[in-house]
Write a structure and sequence with these properties.
The chain has 330 residues and is mainly beta. It has four helices and 15 strands.
Length: 330
């Protein structure tokens, strides 16, 4: 087993190595400035023009600096900003040491000149510092700081420092502490279907709309008349979030929660299994499976969705009373 001192020495050997480099996906532009300002509650991005600038007077708010250098959630490998091999090795080394969870801790930015529409942004990041082993309320691990030098049209424009904590959570997940579903008169039929390995939707008999989650009336026409329709179980990932923080005693971060669009057109939120958080993609095909998620001896089942290309043939076998089902869903 590698000692803490040996691990720290190996981690520190990456200090000064490149972390990432690239060119921003888009030049600085007024559309992104306007969207960012609207989200932040500032409706006038031209409120602080730069009279010394001969071109467009709009100035990108300094605090949106990261918006110009971040890759998109579906950026293809080899396109856009690229993480270095050294940074990937560093994270893999921490993962191997049990520091599989991550949380962003702080960010520092220094602005050297305003950014204007039309500026082309390039950048280079280095692994600046790795801390000794630290114990926090989340767990034990190491702080990793990267420093990014940002240029606009080749001129120094800003310095960005970003710090994360890669850590080993204090406690393993306890499946018995998973929140239990609330069953009431409006959704009891859905949970009866789950107990029979069936995913039941509601269909309004007045306007024929399918709906989920279950409810007493149709959101389109208001009718309270409905029937059940069984979903095929096929779907795609419409959106997802990878949860790192806050911690919950029933789940071991990082884990993924997906918004799955079923083949029938309705959407539901569920855990996505069979693919690591870094492998998830919008549009990824998934298929339904049922599993007992509260530990041996608890008959309560939940519906999950497994990445279709990672389907495990053992999932086809029904759960037996004398053996717990697989617990690979958080």
């Amino acid at each position: 087993m590698v000692s803490d001192d040996d691990l720290f020495a190996r981690l520190r050997s990456y200090e000064g190595c490149p972390a990432a480099s690239g060119t921003g996906r888009y030049p600085v532009n007024t559309a992104m400035i306007s969207h960012w300002c609207e989200v932040m509650g500032d409706p006038d991005p031209d409120a602080t023009p730069d009279p010394a600038h001969e071109g467009p007077t709009a100035v990108a708010p300094p605090a949106m600096l990261q918006a110009w250098i971040m890759p998109g959630p579906t950026t293809a490998p080899g396109a856009g900003p690229q993480r270095s091999a050294a940074y990937g090795e560093l994270l893999a080394l921490l993962d191997a040491a049990g520091c599989t969870a991550v949380v962003a801790t702080d960010c520092e930015q220094e602005y050297l000149r305003p950014l204007h529409p039309g500026d082309v942004i390039t950048f280079d990041s280095v692994i600046e510092q790795i801390s000794p082993r630290k114990t926090t309320s989340l767990g034990t691990g190491h702080f990793v700081t990267t420093r990014t030098e940002i240029r606009a049209n080749g001129e120094p424009a800003a310095t960005h420092r970003f710090r994360i904590l890669k850590y080993r959570p204090h406690h393993a997940a306890d499946a018995s502490r998973r929140p239990r579903p609330v069953v009431d008169r409006d959704n009891a039929g859905f949970w009866e279907g789950v107990a029979e390995n069936r995913l039941l939707l509601q269909r309004c008999t007045a306007c024929d709309r399918l709906r989920f989650p279950w409810g007493p009336g149709c959101p389109d026409c208001g009718s309270d008349r409905w029937e059940t329709a069984e979903a095929s179980g096929a779907g795609t990932v419409h959106s997802y979030v990878v949860v790192h923080h806050p911690p919950h005693p029933a789940f071991a971060p990082p884990y993924a929660v997906g918004l799955v669009e079923l083949a029938e057109g309705v959407r539901m939120i569920s855990t996505v299994t069979g693919a690591g958080p870094a492998e998830l993609r919008i549009g990824m095909p998934v298929e339904l499976e049922f599993a007992r998620a509260y530990g041996p001896g608890d008959a309560q089942q939940l519906p999950f969705f497994r990445a279709r290309h990672q389907r495990d043939s053992r999932q086809d076998a029904p759960c037996r009373e004398d053996a717990p089902c697989r617990q690979d869903a958080p």
